[in-house]
Write a structure and sequence with these properties.
Length: 130
Amino acid sequence: MFSEPELTRLFQNNQSRKDEMDKVPAAKLFIPGTGCAWLITELNRYNQSKGSGLIDLGNNNVTFGEIDIDEIVSFAVGQANHVRRDPYFIGKYPIRTYLSAAKAYGFIVEQDTLLAKWTPHRRSGPSPGS
């Protein structure tokens, strides 16, 4: 279901000691025509059905949590549909940025102009008065 580069990033994120909310999603799954989408941040190398990321079931309540790929596939089949991987998705921000924006808009957004508002700005150089 995932490309080799996506799997590599998903496994690396799973092994990373970074805070879960600082990890950048490596893949996006969706069910066409339903509003359901998942931004996957990590997968367990030994149980590749288990991972974590954003969950958008199209009900204006996006959450971050555990993801079971087998359950997503079963859900899609129950909707007489198929799970698709978005080959054009490129994670650019920590998952916390996507979550903050999704809570504000009610769905997962990917547009930089919308996500920029939710991206923590880090100053470079000396702080004022130093």
